[in-house]
């Protein structure tokens, strides 16, 4: 399968020389899979010409919010709706989670209670067929915006102590999560350090310590691969 990584954010300029761009983080995350990935710089106004250009789509995180006035956000939402209507599998990570929910009729907004930072236990509910049945998974989070209303037809999948709608899916063609399976400890710590003034010194210190708990980004990656491959297999069987 050929998956487009829809790049909606860039590495903070203060640390951009130390870490790979988001599409490359995802390529590293899925290095052991049989999927092929191509980055599409949505943040620069690019989108595929057709939803059929790729077999599926992954929308990355971003410093943007769905409510921002960036010119690339409305076309991205229109593309998401077209892809969903065309039965193309969609994965959303952080901002991707929020913008997919928003585009499909849910709502995301800036949360009144500050930032969700560090490693959280994501409590899982109603796991779909492409995931093993389990109670929770550890995942890195860095977010202030949240999905406050799921789209119609969505199944609530995961929650954290800070975020009720931390993961959801729609049938077998949408899979979204607030956390970051592609982040590692060093990048997360460096990113929070650049934002200490806005995030707060104490929350950043607590979140940095939580990174020592480890996280299960690789486990999430295996679920995403299974999501894409099972979608393709089921459509091929029905053809």
Q: What's the short version?
A:
The protein is α/β, with parallel strands linked by helices and 239 residues long.
Describe the fold and architecture.
The chain is 32% helix and 24% strand. The chain has 239 residues and is α/β, with parallel strands linked by helices. Helix 2 (73-85) crosses helix 3 (95-103). It is globular, with a radius of gyration of 17 Å. It has one domain (2-238): Class I glutamine amidotransferase (GATase) domain (Rossmann fold), CATH 3.40.50.880. Strand 1 (2-6), helix 1 (22-29) and strand 2 (36-40) form a beta-alpha-beta unit.
Count of DSSP strands = 11
Q: What is the overall pLDDT average?
A: 96
The CATH architecture is 3-Layer(aba) Sandwich
Ranges with pLDDT <50 over ≥5 residues?
Answer: none
CATH superfamily: Class I glutamine amidotransferase (GATase) domain
The radius of gyration computed from the alpha-carbon positions, rounded to a whole number of angstroms, is: 17 Å
What does the overall shape look like?
globular
């Amino acid at each position: 399968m050929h998956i487009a990584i829809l790049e909606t954010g860039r590495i903070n300029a203060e640390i951009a020389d130390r870490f790979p761009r988001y599409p490359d983080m995802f390529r590293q995350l899925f290095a052991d899979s049989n999927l092929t990935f191509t980055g599409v710089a949505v943040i620069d106004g690019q989108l595929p010409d057709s939803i059929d250009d790729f077999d599926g789509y992954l929308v990355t995180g971003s410093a943007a919010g769905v409510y921002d006035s960036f010119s690339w956000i409305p076309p991205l939402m229109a593309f998401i709706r077209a892809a969903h209507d065309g039965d193309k599998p969609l994965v959303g990570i952080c901002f991707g989670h929020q913008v997919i929910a928003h585009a499909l009729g849910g709502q995301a907004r800036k949360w009144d209670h500050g930032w969700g930072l560090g490693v959280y236990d994501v409590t899982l509910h109603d796991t779909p067929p492409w995931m093993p049945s389990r109670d929770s998974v550890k995942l890195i989070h860095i977010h202030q915006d949240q999905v406050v209303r799921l789209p119609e037809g969505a199944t609530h999948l995961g929650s954290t102590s800070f975020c009720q709608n931390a993961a959801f899916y729609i049938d077998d063609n949408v899979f979204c999560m607030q956390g970051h399976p592609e982040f590692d400890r060093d990048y997360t710590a460096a990113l929070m350090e650049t934002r200490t003034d806005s995030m707060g010194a104490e929350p950043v210190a607590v979140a940095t310590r939580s990174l020592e708990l480890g996280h299960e980004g690789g486990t999430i990656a295996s679920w995403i691969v299974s999501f894409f491959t099972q979608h393709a297999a089921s459509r091929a069987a029905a053809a």
